[in-house]
Description:
Layout: E1 2-6, H1 11-27, E2 32-38, H2 39-42, E3 53-57, H3 59-67, H4 72-88, E4 90-96, H5 101-109, E5 111-118, E6 131-133, H6 142-153, H7 167-180, E7 187-191, H8 203-217, E8 220-223, H9 230-239, E9 245-246, H10 253-262, E10 265-269, H11 272-280, E11 284-287, H12 293-296, E12 304-306, H13 324-327, H14 331-341
Parallel strand pairs: 1-2, 1-4, 2-3, 4-5, 5-6, 7-8, 7-10, 8-9, 10-11, 11-12
Helix pairs in contact: 1-6, 1-11, 3-4, 7-10, 8-9, 8-14, 10-11
Amino acid sequence: MNILIIKLSAIGDVVQTLPALEAIKTIYPESTLTWLVEEPAAGILEDHPLIDIVLVSRRKIWFRMLRNPLTAMQGLTRIFHFLVDLRRSQYDIAIDFQGLFKSGVLIGLARARRKIGFDRTRELSYLFLNERIPAYDIEKHALERYLDVARYLGAKDIHATCTLPIHRELTLIRQKVEAIKPQGKLLIVINPAARWKSKLWPERNFAMLADRLVREKHAVVVFTGSREDRELNRNILSMMEEQALNWAGETTLKELAALAHHADVFISTDTGPMHLAAAAGVTVLALFGPTAPWRTGPYGSKHIILRAGTECSPCFTRTCNNVRCMDDITVDAVMNEILIKT
C-alpha cells in the first residue's frame, strides 16, 4: 500500500494532521507513506518514524525565481523536477487534507487510484478528487476534522496521539535550559508573534507580564519566534525592568517543540508554535481574539484559553482598527491563570 498525504501548510495545521497520520497507519501498518509539505513546515516531519518520504514544495521560492528574468529558467527547472518526483510513484491512496486550489492541483497531478478529500471545500479543490467525503462542519475542531478522514478509511477507537520526532532535540535543549535555569525555578516560554496583526497582544502587556513572572513567580522567561520576530522581542524586552531571554530565530521547529516540552507553561497567541507546544505536552495558555478556539485552539483539556468576550469576536479578520478582543485581555487575567496552574 502506497499512500500520499498532502498537507502543505501552515505549521499548526501540519501538527494537527499528525494524529490522523497515526490513525491511518493503524489501518495500513505496512504502508509506505509520503507526505507532501511546503518548506516552512517541513522540519516538523523530518525523521518521523511513520513517514517514509517527505516531499518538499518550495513554491514561494520558485515563484520568486519565475518573476526574475535571470532566474526564471532555473525556477522552471526546479518545478519540473518537483513534479517528476511527485509523479514518479503510483499511489493507492492520495489524501488532500489542505482543501485549497494549490493542493487540489497537486493531487490532480499525482498518480493515485483513490484521490480523497472533503467535498465543497474552498477554491474548488474538490473538483480534483474522485472520492469525496461529505463536507465537514466548520465549527468542528480542525484536528477532529482531519481524524474524520481516518475514520472514513476505517480507523476505529482513535486516540488523538501526536508523535513528534524530537528525541535528539530534547537532549540538546535540556542542556541549554539547565544553563539558564537554576534548579527549582519555573521556565515560562512566551511566543508573542502572530501572522495576523489582529491576533497580536500589546507589546507593553507582554513586557508587564514577563516582569511579573520574574518577580512574583521567580521564573526564567524565554521569548521565542522566528528570525523575523527578533525585533518584536527586542521591543518587548526593552520595556521590561527585569531580565528575560530572546531566543527568536535560535531554534528549529523541533527544537522549539523540545523547549516547550521542558517548560512549565507556554504562553502564545493563536499561531503555529501554539499547536507545536500543545503536541509537545506542555500546558499552553493561549490568547484568542479574532479567531475561534473551538475550531483551532490547542487541542486537549489541559490547556487554557483566554478571551476578552467582546461581542464582535470571532470575526476572522486579519486587520482591525480597534482590536478590543485582544487589547481587553488583561495582564491580571493571564497571571491569575498561571497562579492556578503553577
